[in-house]
Amino acid sequence: MALTTAIRHLKRGDWQKAHAIVQSDESELGCWAHGIVHMLEGDIGNARYWYRKAGRAFPRGLDSAAEIDALALAAKSPVPADDSAKPRAAPPRAASRSSSR
Fold first, then answer.
1. Cβ-based neighbours of 28, under 8 Å, separated by 6 or more
2. Which residue stretches of the chain have pLDDT < 70?
3. pLDDT value at position 77?
4. What residues have CB less than 8 Å from 38, skipping those under 6 apart?
5. From CA 34, how far away is CA 25, in angstroms rounded?
């Protein structure tokens, strides 16, 4: 998976290689990773943009290591792609009719 490769690059501090991967990933996790890339690069304005796009609060302490660890953990968690993957309630049972013949 491309995102896990980008996370490995981020953990090594190689934001250029990570950027090459995440710049085409428009998922929430991809946008978060893109924000981390720009945080490592020192482009805080652009990092804030990508955090907003990911729906995440921008970290106050700029602790990129903690952000990378949190991203790695989130990437390991199974996330349904859409509502069709959510469990659905079973349909109500039809009343059974017993024949008395």
1. 54, 55, 56
2. 78-101
3. 79
4. 44, 46, 47, 49, 50
5. 8
The phi-psi region of residue 90 (left if phi > 0; otherwise alpha if psi is between -120 and 50; otherwise beta) is beta
Half-sphere exposure (Cβ direction) of 14: Cα atoms closer than 13 Å = 10
Question: What was the pLDDT predicted at 62?
Answer: 80
SS in 3 state form for the chain?
Answer: CHHHHHHHHHHCCCHHHHHHHHCCCCCHHHHHHHHHHHHHHCCHHHHHHHHHHHCCCCCCCCCHHHHHHHHHHHHHCCCCCCHHHCCCCCCCCCCCCCCCC
